[in-house]
Amino acid sequence: MKRKIYSNMLYIAFVSILFTGALFLVVTYNRYMDQMKENVQTEASYLMQSLNEDENQNLENYHRISGTRITLINIDGTVKFDSSEPAKSLPNHGNRPEFRQAVEAGIGENTRISDTLNKQTYYYALKLDSGKVLRFAVETQTIYKQIMDIIPITLLMAGFVLVLSFFLSRVLTERIVEPINKIDLEHPEDERYYDELAPLLGRIHKQNIAIEDKVKELKQRQLEFSAITSNMSEGFLVLNKDLVVLTCNESALNIFNIKKEQCENHNIMAISRSKCMRKSIEYAVNQIPFEETMKLHGRRYMILTNPVLDEGKLRGIVVLLVDVTEKKKREALRQEFSANVSHELKTPLTTISGYAELIQAGIVKPEDIAGFSGKIHKEALRMIDMIDDIIKISKLDENELDLERTEIDLYQLIQEIQESLRMKARKQQVQLNVIGTPTKIEGIKQVLYDMFYNLMGNGIKYNNPGGKVVVTVSKMNGISTVIVEDNGIGIPNEDQSRVFERFYRVDKSHSSERKGTGLGLSIVKHAAKLHHAKIDLDSTVGKGTKFTVSFYPVKSE
Length: 557
Prior knowledge:
Helix 9 runs antiparallel to helix 10 (about 365-400). The protein is of the alpha+beta class. Strands 2-1-5-4-3 form a five-stranded antiparallel β-sheet. A hairpin with a 3-residue loop joins strand 16 (about 535-540) and strand 17 (about 545-550). The longest helix is centred in the first third of the chain and has 52 residues, at about 1-55. The chain folds into five domains: about 1-145, PAS domain (Beta-Lactamase), CATH 3.30.450.20; about 190-230; about 230-325, 2-Layer Sandwich (Beta-Lactamase); about 335-400, Helix Hairpins (Orthogonal Bundle), CATH 1.10.287.130; about 405-550, Histidine kinase-like ATPase, C-terminal domain (Heat Shock Protein 90), CATH 3.30.565. It has helices at about 1-55, 60-65, 95-105, 145-180, 200-230, 250-255, 270, 275-285, 325-360, 365-400, 410-425, 445-460, 495, 520-530; strands at about 70-75, 80, 105-115, 120-125, 135-140, 235-240, 245-250, 290-295, 300-310, 315-325, 405-410, 430-435, 440-445, 470-475, 480-485, 535-540, 545-550. It is rod-shaped.
């Protein structure tokens, strides 16, 4: 803008100089011609009056005085006298415009380039009383000659004016542009330099408001998007059509075990070169959604890639990584669980079927029928217990418990379980004691009941006659703790890491005497997880076992 204003001002100055010079030349030329004509006409009038009185005057003397060319022409056009050339050498002037006008009207004038003198000449003719024509001729400068004469002066003036215009234009341009450069575009409504800019500044102000609102909206959307993606447990990446990562969330960084600067603005192939990743990207580039499981850093992830299309053209790719490690483990556990259930149920069913077949065949002595029936009943009860435990652990696995969490006093709950196990303890000749203080937590009573029933029941079952089981309920630093400790047979070190597995039994040597479902501690593990509790195991073979269940404070669900 500054350069344009500056150049336009110089252009105007230059055109003004040319126009002024031309106008000055025309005016000067016209004034010069008017003055010359007036002088010639005056001289011619005086001479005409003199000749009318006395035609025999010496015109040569008059020419020497005035310096004007004088020509006396006869009525037939022949030159009688000429002050510049011999009259006989001049052609007939009868066809000259000024001569004809003078003959007809008494006065004639004409300006032309003289063929004789090759100059611009002004001719003025008057008709004498005798019929002859008196003509005055004055050489004048042509307009071209005047232009050539005035050019040096004009150029000098033009140069001076241009130099002056150069500096004035710069100063004026700076003064014009400076307020515009100082306009605060963030607050254009406060500017009052030029009234002509008011409409423009008003529109800029409105656009600023619209842009500010749009930026706020985009920032809000960006914050929402960032909040959603950053809190996703799944890895999330957005690639452009060149496979460069535009954005990635924290979970994706953790999955690939890299930093953000190693992910964003880098090609996805530089981040992961796994065969599955390459395959998924190839499918997406070919505009085909892809889904497959991949192994990465010892875990399993479901990778889902989806192409982003615009008018049939690939604009980008969205990559989602879902950790399915636990899901795969649960599937494996279910398969193992199904196989174990089939195996565990087969044993009592085989026993029941065998005894029933012997009774049906009549092979059993009458006095032995009661014993056989007792064994059938015992195995049936074992199957019922096993099926109940399977149902419990399945519900815990699938989180299908719809029971409401309530405030539960652990000390009171343990006392209820003590009463239920009193007969079993007496039969096993084991002393069962409960000590502690009232301790309340939020939980599901039935689940907690089953958990501590299994722990206390195992303390009785895997104990020796005359042994004891002590349950301690306490609370310290906001952590509620239940300790179930016995002085029974204990658990070998090599088995302690597996006792919470389903159908795992430690006491194989006494399995015939101390049969169980093998699901008790697995139920304990799931119940503790449901209540955000931690289980610690401390056991020594021949000395006893100690289970410590710690309930950490959590917000009510």
